[in-house]
Amino acid sequence: MAEAGRDRTSATLAARRSELRLMVAGAFVSLQEAEALERLAGQKLETIESFRRAVGRRVDAGKVSPIEREKVGSDAGGALIEAQDARQRTTLARGDWPASGHAPMHRTSPRSAGRLARKQRCRIARSF
């Protein structure tokens, strides 16, 4: 009897070890993906910022319409939101939760996230 219990415990332990290995590997891959997306979002933001400055110089020189500056500002707002989202994904993948010790709230629904993104883009575009 004791030997059967030991075998059952040993099998349970082996299963849990395998499960833990899979969870760690999955977390590692998720973190690598989140960090890569964060790097790409940062590069995109830098590119758009340099383009925004170039368009601003062209507008100031009178070579293009001021509406072009607004268009680039809108794109910059979208890139900024992408960068913030990528940063948040990396934070979540690392498990860096707020000081409260509670897990961060889940993402909003796609519809409300879209509304929020539009509001933020408008606010950012006005700041340029």
Descriptive notes:
With 128 residues, the protein is mostly helical. It has one domain (2-96, 107-127). It is 83% helix and 0% strand. It contains three helices and no strands. The protein has helices spanning 2-61, 67-94, 110-127. Helix 1 runs antiparallel to helix 2 and helix 2 (67-94) crosses helix 3 (110-127). The longest helix is centred in the first third of the chain and has 60 residues, at 2-61. The protein is rod-shaped and about 90 Å long. 8% of the residues are buried.
Describe this structure in a few short sentences:
This protein is an all-alpha fold and 128 residues long. It has helices at 2-61, 67-94, 110-127.
Question: Structurally, how many domains make up the residues?
Answer: 1
Residue stretches low in confidence (pLDDT < 50, at least 5 long) are: 106-110
Large-scale geometry = rod-shaped
Percent helix among the residues?
over 70%
Q: What is the strand content?
A: under 5%
From the helix content, strand content and strand pairing, which structural class follows?
mainly alpha
Rg over C-alpha atoms, rounded to the nearest angstrom = 24 Å
State mean pLDDT (0 to 100 scale).
80
Q: Number of DSSP strands?
A: 0
